[in-house]
Amino acid sequence: MYYTTFNESTIKDWPYTNLIFSTPANYHNHTFWEFSFVISGSSQNIVENGKAYTLFPGDAYLMRPQDIHCIKVKSSLYRHRDIYISTERMKQLCDALSPTLYETLNSDKTPTFFKLDSFSLNVLQEQLKVFNLHGGNRNELLDAYHASIVSFLLGMIVKSQLLSMQALPEWLSTFIIQLHDIGYMSMRIEQICSLTKYSQGYLSRMFKKYFGVTLEQFVINLRMEYSTQLLDSNEYSILQIANMIGYDSPNNFTNNFKKKYGISPSKWRKNKNN
């Protein structure tokens, strides 16, 4: 297989992190480690063995120097964030958390994929804006700040590994993928349940068991996360967004949005545009 290798000179202008709006679709690897997480839109990360991982906002992964992969963008609103770490630095940070973490991550057959909740995703985006002020400059303070963010992401991987000990049934994993599609998440709960052979009561118990929330709350969270992408795009009115994600009343949308984010959709849009 032909592939390109990206080295440190590739990221010299942004040695810590970079916000990506589009990405080459060819296979490549890196001489460094790379955390990435999707902010908006969707994509596929296709690794060398041909396995394709469909990614939505909050989906994150850690690519190692030996991992050959390509990214195929599936949405016009696509954005993801890359965070770069040298092999020496990665080993130091892993060893600070666990003597076996680096070897575990490095020896796994596939890259590590994990999920960031909406709160963590928003916090990370704000934290990483600091690097926008410094461009390609490096110093000890930025090194320390970068290390704290990488350590947080390593902690999220450990958390994901703990949660994965209680593996999802295959049908539920497939159902979750469906729910991330706007065509499904905008349906009424009764319609969503009809996609499966299970009752709403059973589905809610399963969601409570594996995710800590009911099916209805899970869908509301998906709608709210998707609505932030639409708000950030400035292409649709609040009423249009409410209808797109399944609300007959913009007031119901606004109430659910305020419960999740603490501000109204219009205030969210105003803050993002300032």
Please tell me about this protein's structure.
The chain is an alpha+beta fold and 274 residues long. The chain has two domains: 4-164, Jelly Rolls (Sandwich); 170-273, Orthogonal Bundle (Arc Repressor Mutant, subunit A). Helix content is 48%, strand content 18%. It contains twelve helices and ten strands. The protein has a five-stranded antiparallel sheet with strand order 2-9-4-7-10. Strands 6-5-8 form a three-stranded antiparallel sheet, with no helix packed on it. Strands 1-3 form a two-stranded parallel sheet. Helix 1 packs across helix 4 and helix 10 crosses helix 11 (250-261). The longest helix is centred in the middle third of the chain and has 25 residues, at 140-164. The N and C termini lie far apart (46 Å). The mean pLDDT is 90.
Q: Tell me the major beta sheet.
A: 5 strands, antiparallel
Number of strands: 10
Write down the domain tally.
Answer: 2
Distance between the termini: 46 Å
Structural class: alpha+beta
Give the helices and strands as they follow along the chain: EEEEEEEEEHHEHHHHHHHHHH
**What's the shape?**
globular
CATH topology of the largest domain: Jelly Rolls
How confident is the prediction overall: mean pLDDT?
Answer: 90
